[in-house]
Design goal:
It is built from 14 helices and two strands. The chain is mainly alpha-helical. A two-stranded antiparallel sheet has the order 1-2. The termini are far apart. It comes from Pyrus ussuriensis x Pyrus communis.
Length: 396
């Protein structure tokens, strides 16, 4: 008894130490849980922000490529030669990925190969029209007219009865209204150049200064018309590519052969049109920079980001950033090329953007209705399923 009383302080101290140790362990666990929660929040934020940053970067690089190509063509570079060299270099960049991929190229069906040849024919025609349109007009007009692609895609889908035109649905009415609004904005961009509302000459390099652009008599209407035709071909490309791409899972093979066919077709056409041998000789200046940038960012980088964002967030997320390119293009051509920003481009671009987002709203509305219908069908099937055993039991 005396020994127990004597050891009481020791036991109390031991229990206190164990209790404190348990509290310390609990605090460590709370800190670990807090860190895990913090990591999950950071991961979720990055998961949301990274596709946005990627798409904004793509818009900047697209407009940058267009601006640099405009500068190169304004200095005398042929638009046909530019399209050939940039696509050939892009095919060279993609060649290692094509060789090292897991799925062999021998498994590519002949029907898919013929479809890719057709896609290349449509895409090469669209590219030639687009860069000739940029040469005659402006990168700002090109970015504004690019918003017509989903509008033209909707019109063609209705014409070929891929999509039904049901005016009782609000989504269909929104799409129809967006078509009218966007086409009206396109006519304003093409037919009404307007007065210059913003001019900046500070960062224009002396090698392709303002005087060169001012002296060039750009046919604004003709350039806008070429860009509209390019967007129409791009819409046809969107409709044709869907069944071809779905029949073959390897995206690297599809992109490589598409660019390969575009290179061959544009080379044949450009050799017929561009007879001057000196036009095929590249100068190590803005021409070389434009070709390298177009191959790296206009083809390889943009395709990779679009495929990744399509897998992460779907097609609507990818298309909703297109109007941002208009503002970027307007800033770049004024700052770096020294061109003036015209009133017609601003008004028309705003109207096209309104129509574009009305089209996006209609698509979101249709997808929401389709998802609700699927949920309703699944719920009805789930409610009816338990009745089947009862009926079987009654029959027995």
């Amino acid at each position: 008894m005396a020994r127990l009383i004597f050891n009481m302080p020791v036991l109390y101290a031991s229990l206190s130490v164990l209790k404190e140790f348990g509290r310390e362990r609990e605090r460590e666990r709370e800190r670990e849980r807090a860190e895990e929660s913090m990591d999950m929040q950071v991961g979720c934020r990055w998961g949301v922000l990274l596709p946005v940053v990627a798409m904004v970067t793509v818009e900047f690089t697209d407009v940058g490529v267009t601006t640099v190509s405009k500068a190169a063509m304004s200095r005398g570079m042929s638009s046909y030669v530019f399209v050939v060299y940039s696509n050939a270099l892009a095919a060279i960049f993609l060649l290692p990925c094509f060789i090292l991929q897991k799925k062999p190229a021998a498994s590519l069906p002949l029907s898919v190969l013929c479809g890719l040849f057709l896609l290349g024919l449509i895409g090469s025609s669209s590219l030639i029209l687009a860069y000739n349109g940029i040469n005659y007009s402006s990168p700002t007009v090109s970015s504004a007219m690019g918003n017509l692609i989903p509008i033209f895609t909707f019109v063609l889908a209705v014409i070929f009865r891929i999509e039904k035109l049901d005016l009782r649905k609000s989504s269909t009415r929104a799409k129809l209204l967006s078509t009218i609004v966007s086409v009206s904005g396109a006519f304003i961009v093409i037919l009404y150049k307007g007065s210059a509302i913003l001019t900046f000459k500070g960062l224009s390099p002396p090698n392709f200064s303002n005087q060169h652009f001012v002296s060039q008599q750009t046919n604004w209407v003709f350039g806008g018309f070429l860009l509209a035709l390019s967007c129409l071909l791009a819409a046809i490309w969107n409709i044709v590519q869907a069944p071809i791409v779905n029949n073959f899972p390897s995206k690297v093979t599809i992109v490589f052969f598409y660019i390969f066919f575009v290179t061959i077709q544009t080379t044949i056409y450009s050799l017929i049109v561009e007879r001057n041998p000196n036009s095929w000789v590249l100068r190590p200046d803005i021409e070389m920079i434009a070709i390298v940038c177009s191959a790296m960012f206009g083809s390889v980088f943009r395709t990779a980001v679009h495929v990744w964002c399509l897998q992460q967030n779907g097609p609507i997320f990818v298309t909703m950033f297109r109007p941002l390119g208009v503002a970027i293009a307007a800033a770049m051509v004024v700052i770096f090329l020294g061109e003036s920003l015209h009133l017609g481009s601003v008004i028309g671009s705003i109207i096209i953007a309104i129509g574009f987002y009305a089209m996006i709203w209609g698509q979101i509305k249709e997808q929401k209705i389709a998802m609700e219908n699927e949920v309703h069908i699944l719920a009805s099937a789930t409610q009816q399923a338990p009745l089947l055993p009862c009926r079987v039991a009654e029959d027995q």
